[in-house]
Amino acid sequence: MVAADYSVYGATRRAEKVKDIEATGATAVVVDVYDAERLNEELVRIQPWAVIHQLTDLPRGLSPELMAKAVENNARIRTEGTRNLVAAARAAGATRLIAQSIAWAYRPGDTPYLETCPLDVEAQGSRGISVGGVAALEKQVLSEPTLNGTVLRYGQLYGPDTGTDEPTGTSPVHVKAAARAALLALQTEQSGIFNITQDSPTVSNEKAKRVLGWSPTEEA
């Protein structure tokens, strides 16, 4: 975003992350998404026209022993965190909201999965918790009447700072290609849902290629 000449603010709830954000050329804002009042204050102060929701709550390196709790934390941030962020964006007068979702929450069925395929909302256990959070996030982003909402269903991220250097899962995507998709969504102002994955027989990325002009091999 910075390289594309946008004025960028990056939010973190951890003060030690400020230097990392500022190193990219963005302005760091320390705020907890669960502190709705403070989040509102910060967005109203900044007055962004667009908000990009990349919030997650996952352990570094996706440590297996921490993932059970992380599934609950991540579902909470997708549900409650998204609710607070949508409200703050609305209060700040933003007109655009782009949010990260996932491309492996589809209900089992014929492949490749299209954006119109149903999510696996009847799943049980940890998958049910995760998909429930995804469904809540997407509904809030796409149903807010004051915001032009876009959902980017990322595949399993790999690359710098993701915890894995090589593609994993059935529908991976390089983190820089995912970032490129967010930039294109911002520039084209296209609303709706897009699968952002590498070419695979499991998940179709044709809509993102056709509508956003995105390529899984093109990095931000």
UniProtKB/TrEMBL annotation:
Domain named NAD(P)-binding: residues: 3-164
Superkingdom, natural source: Bacteria
Cited Pfam families: NAD_binding_10
Transmembrane segments annotated in the record for this chain: none
Record's protein name: dTDP-glucose 4,6-dehydratase
Species lineage: Bacteria, Pseudomonadati, Pseudomonadota, Gammaproteobacteria, Pseudomonadales
